[in-house]
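Lab channel / #folding
Pinned by the channel admin:
"Please post every new chain as: sequence first, then the structure tokens as a reply. Keep commentary short and put observations after the output so the thread stays searchable."

First post following the new format, from NK:
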Amino acid sequence: MDARFTAEQDEIRRTLRDLLHKRCGPEELRAAVGTPAGYDPALWTALAEQLGLPGLALPETYGGVGCSVTELALACEETGRALAPSPLLATAVLTAPLLLALGTDAQRTDLLPRIASGGLTAALAVPGPALATALGFTGHDPRGEWAGGGRAGGVQARRADGGWRLYGQADQILDGHSADLLVVAAHTGGFARSRVLLFLVRGDAAGVTRVRQTSLDATRPQARVQLRDTTAELLGSADADALPALARLGDTVGACLAAEAVGAAGRVLERTVEYVGQREQFGRPVGSFQAVKHRLADVYVEVQAARSAAYYAAWAASHGEPVGGLALAQALQALRSAAAAGIQLHGGIGFTWEHEVHLYFKRAAGDELLFGPVHRLRAHAADVAHVFEEAGR
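Reply from TO:
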């Protein structure tokens, strides 16, 4: 592994950081999350047209840039720094790889170029509490019972009139209220022989009801999606099981989320260091006190270690090494520590709604709710690596 970044990778980071600095400051961020979509469509268009961000990791055959997971993770690190609300995670990280891996030639040719151009946004409809399990972050469910399993809840699929019909509900769907296309995980085949398949559903299809939910992290819009006898198109063939594809996707998602969290942690640490250098107590800057220096030094080490883990996870995702969940655990821990220190060291202003430092803490807490708490991410990674089994021998 060569840990050095290429000139192209450095240029992606620099250009994206400059654009977000101009277009996604604190005021623009608050205005964007208050819109019905939860993000600024003009900014998303700029990210797509100027930087090709939605298609960064898609093959050139389908209109993408043809980069690897590393470049996509670096882009996520920069959007994490700014807490930029956009369909990037839902569309380019969670959904596009599934279309590429499982879709038929016709589906890829139809959908992927539109995603790469930014003209089509997509969302993965997996019941929110089960997303971490589906991606293999916090557990392994070989039957996919999180999708319904023939019991109440989840989404069920049945054949009808030569096609497919879906019925059910999924909550906590990232960008589910605004996405043009939904990729829905549903059970089919009855309880005894049930299995999980993925289906394509237009956002405006008959029988689809989408309601934006109030979420802890306003920069990650979520929705409740209800399907009532909704016409759907099977993604790929009926022979393909979606569970292995979702588990493989977890490596890419974990690396991108880890990079995103590291970007946010690094930014809130920078803001805190800047603030304690200006704020005075007892006639001297707060940052000159040894206890404050030690606290920030500990956070700095934690953030740098998490950054190294995120970069390695991005490289490993392209080489078949499943370390995304472990890198995500370390990054979320670093973000939580950096945000907590930022709130405390900003003093009274850090606790107010007017200051954006609390948004970083909400990002850490919100990601743990969606993708698994740190202790469960680490516990599952230890189980996969058979750490405790080896120690007990």
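NK: The CA atoms of residues 218 and 316 lie 31 Å apart.
TO: also worth noting, The longest strand covers residues 222-234.
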